[in-house]
Write a structure and sequence with these properties.
The complex is a heterodimer. Chain A is built from no helices and eleven strands. In chain A, the strands form two sheets. In chain A, strands 2, 4, 5, 6, 9, 10 and 11 form a seven-stranded mixed β-sheet that branches. In chain A, β5 and β6 form a beta hairpin. The chains are: A mainly beta, B mainly beta.
């Protein structure tokens, strides 16, 4: 275990469903991130939270809605997704910024939109 | 075995040989670099990092080399083992803005397969 836990590990949802991805970190970090990993593409940064405030929204469609209620928890709320949103969604955390520290990743949620 | 050029997506290496994975980065303002390893079904795991004031750093069986002149980063794995089979990503961080501190930009990844 890395100290960053993501649930569920796998999720299949229809395009009209609403679901949420959960991430929890036990490392005492104060920044958390959502990344999208699609086949044969680099990891794409979606959202960044620092001390529960969003510091980056990387032009992500509004059908993805993040929530960070405290520095240990991060959610990604999903609604009316498209099949091209099928991917591995990775949560990460870092102590302060990524500079000089890097990220600690969770194992991801494999999302399939049908 | 060695991956060359801007990006070679796959590398096949004989067990016991040394592996070299290459990465070209684009942001001349980047000052911190990391190599990650991602095994099947897992998230990326930190291997080794290097700051721009260094050109070489060694870990256990791994060495990272940084050439800022040509914006090139490499990861060398000594005596490659079957457990080294994974996808390897380079990542860079840096920039003049405060929120650049939070962003890691990742390369496309190189899949390393170790032959017995």
């Amino acid at each position: 275990e890395t100290g960053v836990t993501q649930t569920p590990r796998h999720l299949v949802m229809g395009m009209t469903n609403k679901k949420s991805l959960k991430c929890e970190q036990h490392l005492g970090h104060n920044a958390m991130y959502w990344y999208k990993q699609s086949a044969k593409k680099p990891l794409e940064l979606m959202f960044v939270y620092s001390l529960e405030e969003r510091v980056e929204n990387n032009s992500v469609p509004s059908r993805f809605s993040p929530e960070c209620p405290n520095s240990s928890h991060l959610f990604l709320h999903l609604h009316t997704l498209q099949p091209e949103d099928s991917a591995l969604y990775l949560c990460a955390s870092s102590q302060d910024s990524a500079r000089g520290h890097g990220y600690t990743f969770g194992s991801g949620t494999r999302l399939t939109v049908v | 075995g060695e991956s060359v050029g801007l990006h070679l997506p796959t590398l096949s290496v004989q067990e016991g040989d040394n592996s070299i994975i290459n990465c070209a980065y684009s942001n001349s303002a980047s000052d911190y670099f990391i190599w990650y390893k991602q095994e099947s079904g897992k998230g990326p795991q930190f291997i080794i990092d290097i700051r721009s004031n260094m050109d070489k750093r060694q870990g256990q069986r791994v060495t990272v080399l940084l050439n800022k002149t040509v914006k090139h980063l490499s990861l060398q794995i000594a005596a490659t083992q079957p457990g080294d089979s994974a996808v390897y990503f380079c990542a860079e961080n840096g920039g003049p803005r405060e929120d650049d501190d939070y962003k890691l930009s990742f390369g496309a990844g190189t899949t390393v397969t170790v032959r017995a």
